[in-house]
Predict the 3D structure of the following.
Amino acid sequence: MESHELLSQCFKKQGVKHCATELGLSAPLLYKWCEPNKSTDDSGAVNPLDRVAQIVRLTGDHSPIDWLCGQAGGVFVADTSSNKSTLPNMIQQTHKILKEFSDLIDVISVGMTDDGKIDRQESNRIRDEWQQMKTIVESFVMACEKGVYGAK
């Protein structure tokens, strides 16, 4: 599905005019986002989804997508199993999982041993470590499900 098609579906649920009002934008702009924009001949405008995709392609940094996933209550997990040549072997991957878990425990331990409480800054570090660990473990599970670590 193309980004403009996805936005069109999303806006249909509440209505373009309602969404435009809530976003503080014009309805014609939202309608433009719902049209194709592959060339200068197309009438659509580059929409926010395409902009985020461009930022990720330009920077090679998935953090904008991870941030969006977090806003939706989830976490971004790259599908690394499709490129078997760069995928770490099972032992390396399990060591990485254990290291991430150890890092998480370390952050929690430091937070508790200094004053017996977890403050906001420590909570943020715990969240960061947890997000990293979830991503690595999910990537590993996806690779296992696809048979990447199966017998040769």
Summary: The helical segments are 3-14, 16-23, 27-33, 48-59, 63-71, 90-115, 120-145.
